[in-house]
Amino acid sequence: MDFSLAWQKLNQIGRELVAALPNIAIGTVVIIIFFFVARGVRAVVARVTHRKQGSQSLSLLLSRLAYVATLIIGVLVVATIVLPGFTPTSLISALGVGGIAIGFAFKDIFQNFLAGILLLLTEPFKINDQIKYKDFEGTVESIQTRATTIRTYDGRRVVIPNAELFTNAVTVNTAYDKRRLQYDIGIGYGDDIAQARQLILEAMREVEGVLEDPAPEAIVMDLAGSSVNLRARWWVNPPRQADILDAQDKVLESIKNKLTQNGIDLPFPTQQILFHDQTEVTDGDRRRQREGWPTGQGDVPQARAALPSPDQQPTSDSVTQA
Prior knowledge:
The chain is α+β, with helices and mostly antiparallel strands and about 325 residues long. The protein has helices spanning about 5-55, 55-80, 90-105, 105-120, 160-165, 195-205, 240-260, 315-320; strands at about 130-135, 135-145, 145-150, 155-160, 170, 180-185, 215-225, 230-235.
């Protein structure tokens, strides 16, 4: 077997490698320099953006982008040193159709990346805000370039793609300093509404944490089947979930105790069934029915029980003989 051709090829590669060693050494030094420069740029960007924007997530994102961009520039510079024939233009032309294919393949990733940048720039919510998205509700832990993570109230982590949070409705529970809570309380139809309203307001004002401004309210909402429903509304600060549950627990306990101590009924649902038939004029006694409507003017038909039996009614033959 003739290995001369292969040996010549190896010799050529070796000579080219030896010739390129100075360039490789220079490129290694340059990439190390760019590595430290990138770290410095990242620190500077993080410090400047955090001072001006005040957002930890945005500062982290911009510092990472600056770090990666600096390293990419360093790699391109090293590539032009080690490979004299290489230029950024040739890299772009080499990508060509392949770049389009990569774009389609990573469409969702790029979409989430851009949505993450827009979320960090517009800041509809921040880290430690409590948000609700569809069936998920919890505290925002981090806003990354691909997804946002929240910690639910029962101690679970939910990872939500940024594109979904950017294009869909999100409820931010902690967007404002105050939050209004409400609860419907049913009282009996025989109870005094004005008295019950005053007792509910007193009960809410006695609870620590209920704000005086805006003032608590108690308004009639519904004349239900077995109760008159009053809606108690009060404001709390801060609007975090733990504070809300604590305030609601104290307010409802205070209202219940206040109403029962003053003789206000808290009825449970009841249903009344009337067993009679009113499909014919002679069925049922309208004077004794209790549906709530009056008997009206004129004579009221007799009840079936008050009518004579068929045996007692005169027949046509007896009337003729008479």
